[in-house]
Amino acid sequence: MRSYLTDWRNAFRGKAALVVRPATTEEVAAVVRLCHAAEVSLVPQGGNTGLCGGSMPDDSGRQVVLSLTRMARIREVDPANATVTVEAGVVLQRLQEAAAEAGRLFPLSLGAEGSCTVGGNLATNAGGTAVLRYGNMRDLVLGLEVVLPDGTVWNGLRSLRKDNTGYDLKHLFIGSEGTLGVITAAVLKLFPALRSQATAWVALPSTEAALALIGIMRDLGGDRLTGFEMMSRQSVEFVLRHVAGCTDPFAQTHPWYVLIELGDTLPDAALGDILETALGEAFEQGLVLDAAIATSEARVAALWHLREGISEAQNHEGPSLKHDISVPVSSIPAFIERADAALQEGFPGVRIVCYGHVGDGNLHYNISKPVGAEDASFKACAEAIMHAVYEVVAAFNGSISAEHGLGQSKHHAAALYKDALELSLMKSIKQLLDPKGLMNPGKIFVS
Ligand code: FAD
Ligand code: MLT
Ligand code: ZN
What is the pLDDT of residues 321-342, one digit of tens each? Predict the structure, then answer.
């Protein structure tokens, strides 16, 4: 059972009475019915790439892990309706490939796409690198099939773009992290395939310059802007140190970088010209220090590797604290300045690995231990570091979890930083759907 009882980072471990791997909705419902009758709690699990312990059982050894990975069928592609119906265990990359085979695009894209599943993406309302243009997972869903906590199957697999017949129940389950039911299938939106793309790696003097540059890119590129990822030098240095095959695009080091991607459905959209014009304007305004436009698919892949290798690289630097925060886009420079100052004053030497989906206001403000520090002494400060960061998030009316969810690592913080009325309404919904508290207990809410 070992691979089901630890997560991608090896940061969480649990025990389980059983791991069950049903292959159909009926089999999932039968398992859930049995657990409901016997009052045994269940932990739904997809690719186990979630970063806050949501898919891990507790250490009682009495919970059942319900892995969806055998529910891996693409049930239907409907090009005319621009939809695809998939089962929860389909790996995201497989879904992207199936869409491409049908001449369409499924736009959700993230570093773990080779192993995360559609069910996990739905249950965490995953974000990633194309939210700027296509939205979060929530924006990509038309219908859901869910096994409710008593084993009843809700067939909400509608493929309608308009349906105003009361409350839109699918949104309850999206982002519910397995606490309200088991998602078994979904109807998802497809988009026109992108036939032109242009990608650049750009060095910047400051985070203010990143905001000004995204403004220029939007003015000139409109909604062709599909990606705008920002990384600090510290983040890039970790990747260069630990991820095989990565090289620095520039001879000199710079404080900040952005990876920009434009996409268009026309095969000859001249996106390189748009990029060059925008970067030229930015150079004139002193916003850009250096820039490299990728000229081959291999180069594009290498630049994305440099960005997407950050999570893996940080694992090699010892224990780290993940803060997946969001603030209004316009507050990003001030947030970073204030949070950096708070940490430098309170916890000298910690290494701030700040990067993320800056166009969405979502930063991964991750912290690695000081060079040479004992793991234990760093871990002893974890709570205090987290609060220092979240106090600054709160000062900017931000969120302590922009895309990864709360799981078991942020539910305590949510109890402190989330609006009390909202939390109380959420608990009422949980009580209504899962009165016995058997669906992924100990996640989202402090039990
Ligand atoms: P799991 O980790 O297995 O589960 C996550 C949660 O969903 C758990 O609470 C689990 O109980 C619940 N769950 C899983 N399947 C179901 C189901 N069928 N029904 C009900 N509940 C279910 N996330 C982002 O949003 N954006 C990123 O850019 C991003 N980048 C990442 C990069 C790396 C390198 C890694 C390792 C992770 C990254 N993540 C990112 C986090 C993670 O990949 C996503 O949260 C993903 O959606 C989780 O999918 P999974 O199948 O692995 O889910
Ligand atoms: C990413 O965008 O790379 C991940 O969501 C961040 C992380 O691993 O902390
Ligand atoms: Zn992310």
Answer: 999 999 999 999 999 999 999 9
- For residue 72, the ligand closest to its alpha carbon is 1
Cβ atoms of 12 and 140 closer than 8 Å: no
pTM reported for the whole predicted model:
0.97
CA of 345 to the centre of ligand 1 (A): 34
Tell me how far apart the alpha carbons of residues 40 and 23 are, in angstroms, rounded to a whole number: 21
Burial class (CB in 10 A: 0-12, 13-18, 19+), 267: exposed
Q: pLDDT category, 445, cuts 50, 70, 90?
A: very high
Asked if 350 contacts 367 with a C-beta cutoff of 8 angstroms, the reply is yes
Q: In this structure, which amino acid lies at residue 209?
A: A
Residue 9 CB less than 6 A away from ligand 2: no
Reported residue count of the chain is 447
Of all protein residues, the one whose alpha carbon is nearest to atom 32 of ligand 1 is: 111
* Cα distance between residue 241 and residue 74, in whole Å: 39
- Copy the structure tokens of residue 201: 């790696």
Domains of the chain: 2-68 (3.30.43.10), 74-192 (3.30.465.10), 196-312 (3.30.70.2190), 317-404 (3.30.70.2740)
Protein residue with least CA distance to atom 8, ligand 2: 311
The ligand that comes nearest to the alpha carbon of residue 113 is 1
Q: What are phi and psi of 209, to 5 degrees?
A: -65, -35
311 lines ligand 2 (CB under 6 A): yes
